[in-house]
Amino acid sequence: MLDKIALALVIVGALNWGGIGIFQYDLVAALFGGASAIGSRIIYTLVALAGIWAISFFFRDSSINMGK
Question: Which one in 7, 10, 12, 19 has a CA-CA gap of 20 to 30 Å to 55?
Answer without folding.
Answer: 19
